[in-house]
């Protein structure tokens, strides 16, 4: 038992990203505590209202089948989950059939950021100790990973995390493509939307820095990051690539909807009163993410579209595929300066 426990701690702390950490945590709780359901909830904290996401969950069906579910925003969180988040206390509810549901709070730098919910058949005190200990190990390790994955100024994902996240997304698309290939045509149409990548750069940002200093420039960057988190879906991935350049990876959707969404976003930025700047605008280059793309090619395509937007008036949204179709850029053009890590 002790050796198994040590091995499970080693397994948890071997992870190098938050998603795999949560997967390990749930598997370990299941192995040592034995629950019928385990869910990791996160408070996304992007809107003034609470926005809760189910980060990952495991359900045991018929005693031996496991059903994993991925990221999803929870529309109506249970009152016990909300109490757990607000009070930072463990909440337990017992039902008449002997089942028990327990919510354990998770904090990061003294701030409640989520909770782990488990459903079990009455927990012995040794199991309760174990469960608490696993949650604390997860919490400590989450802090380290969080520091590694996030940009210090804006709290957005950093450049180093991009490669790993986009590889995961492309892998998922390949699997989905294989599944879609077996579907009939009507269902295929519904599933045919692709993911998109946007590269966004503030126009004339240097002027803000030069006129008001870097601290004021930083404040503008911070406010823009908040606007992005507020405007975009919690499942879209937002990275700060450094300086005044941001990259967004969108969930699969049609060209029409992403174009509409990004035009609305640009309009919102134009209408926002940023400190020190009368009218701040951004330029955006976008491209599709296809299942067999290499991450660097996707970045290059978006960068070419962004370069075109900058060279042709700024304050514009340009799609790589449209520019190519209209022969406005050349696919062999090597004008981009993307870092290869
Ligand atoms: N405040 C602040 N400024 C930064 C940071 N990183 C880079 N910069 C500044 O961002 C500015 C980028 O300037 P340029 O690349 O010339 O771009 P621009 O002035 O936005 O012009 P266009 O992109 O062509 O519209 C430079 O002044 C950098 O010093 C940062 O973390 N904080």
Automatic annotation (TrEMBL):
EC category: transferase
Catalytic activity: 2 GTP = 3',3'-c-di-GMP + 2 diphosphate
EC number of the protein: 2.7.7.65
Molecular function per GO: diguanylate cyclase activity
One annotated Gene Ontology cellular component of this protein: plasma membrane
Record-linked InterPro entries: Diguanylate_Cyclase, GGDEF_dom, Nucleotide_cyclase, Rev_trsase/Diguanyl_cyclase
Reported cofactor(s): Mg(2+)
Domain of life: Bacteria
GGDEF domain location: 193-322
GO biological process: cell adhesion involved in single-species biofilm formation; negative regulation of bacterial-type flagellum-dependent cell motility
Matches recorded under Pfam families: GGDEF
PANTHER family: DIGUANYLATE CYCLASE DGCM-RELATED, REGULATORY COMPONENTS OF SENSORY TRANSDUCTION SYSTEM
Protein name: diguanylate cyclase
Lineage, broadest ranks: Bacteria, Pseudomonadati, Pseudomonadota, Gammaproteobacteria, Alteromonadales
């Amino acid at each position: 038992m002790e050796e198994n426990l040590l091995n499970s701690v080693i397994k948890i702390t071997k992870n190098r990203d938050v998603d795999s950490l949560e997967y390990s945590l749930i598997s370990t709780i299941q192995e040592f505590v034995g629950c019928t359901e385990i869910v990791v909830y996160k408070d996304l904290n992007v809107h003034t209202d609470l926005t809760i996401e189910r980060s990952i969950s495991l359900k045991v069906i018929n005693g031996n089948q496991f059903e994993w579910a991925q990221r999803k925003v929870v529309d109506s969180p249970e009152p016990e989950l909300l109490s757990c988040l607000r009070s930072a206390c463990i909440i337990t509810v017992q039902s008449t059939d002997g089942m028990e549901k327990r919510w354990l709070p998770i904090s990061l730098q003294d701030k409640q950021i989520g909770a782990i919910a488990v459903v079990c058949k009455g927990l012995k005190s040794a199991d309760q100790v174990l469960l608490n200990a696993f949650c604390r190990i997860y919490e400590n390790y989450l802090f380290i990973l969080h520091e590694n994955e996030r940009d210090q100024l804006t709290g957005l994902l950093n450049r180093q995390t991009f490669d790993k996240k986009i590889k995961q997304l492309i892998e998922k698309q390949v699997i989905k493509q294989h599944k879609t290939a077996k579907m009939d045509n009507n269902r295929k149409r519904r599933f045919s939307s692709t993911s998109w990548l946007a590269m966004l750069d503030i126009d004339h940002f240097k002027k803000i820095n030069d006129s008001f200093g870097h601290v004021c420039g930083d404040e503008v960057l911070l406010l823009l990051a908040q606007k992005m988190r507020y405007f975009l879906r919690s499942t879209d991935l937002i990275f700060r690539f450094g300086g005044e350049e941001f990259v967004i990876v969108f969930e699969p959707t049609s060209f029409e909807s992403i174009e509409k969404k990004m035009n609305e976003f640009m309009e919102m930025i134009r209408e926002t009163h940023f400190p020190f700047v009368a009218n701040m605008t951004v330029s955006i280059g976008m491209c599709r993410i296809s299942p067999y793309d290499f991450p660097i090619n996707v970045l290059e395509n978006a960068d070419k579209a962004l370069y075109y937007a900058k060279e042709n008036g700024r304050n514009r949204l340009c799609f790589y595929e449209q520019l190519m179709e209209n022969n406005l850029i050349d696919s062999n053009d090597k004008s981009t300066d993307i870092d290869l890590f």
